[in-house]
Amino acid sequence: MSKPTFTESDTLGTRLRKLRHWRKMTLMELHDKAEVGIGTISDVESGKRQPNTTTLLKLARALGVSLKTLTGA
């Protein structure tokens, strides 16, 4: 399966959710692999929270993507 496609309007949360689904990971699996709280991941995906750099790096590593791919920056 190829990487998901993103649009310019995709938020960080949308990108995170697309990447998690692309990897066929549940919130719990991403939580376990990234060592980031389930609530934090859920809040980022829903746009309720902006993660710090450390959290972004953990999520990107757990998903096997670059920080640029995750953030779109």
Summarize it.
With 73 residues, the protein is mainly alpha-helical. It has five helices and no strands.
Summing up helix and strand content along with how strands pair, one would put the structural category as mainly alpha
CATH topology: 434 Repressor (Amino-terminal Domain)
Shape: globular
Mean pLDDT across the residues is 94
In oligomeric terms, what are we looking at? single chain
Strand content: under 5%
In the residues, how many domains can be counted? 1
Largest sheet: none
Residue share in helix: 55-70%
Please work out how many helical segments DSSP would assign. Answer: 5
Rg is: 11 Å
Question: Could you characterize what this model shows?
Answer:
- The mean pLDDT is 94.
- With 73 residues, this protein is an all-alpha fold.
- It has one domain (12-68): 434 Repressor (Amino-terminal Domain).
- The protein is built from 5 helices and no strands.
- The longest helix has 11 residues, at 12-22.
- It is 59% helix and 0% strand.
Lay out the secondary structure.
Layout: H1 12-22, H2 27-34, H3 38-45, H4 53-63, H5 67-71
Highlighted features:
434 Repressor (Amino-terminal Domain); 73 residues; 5 helices; mainly alpha; 59% helix
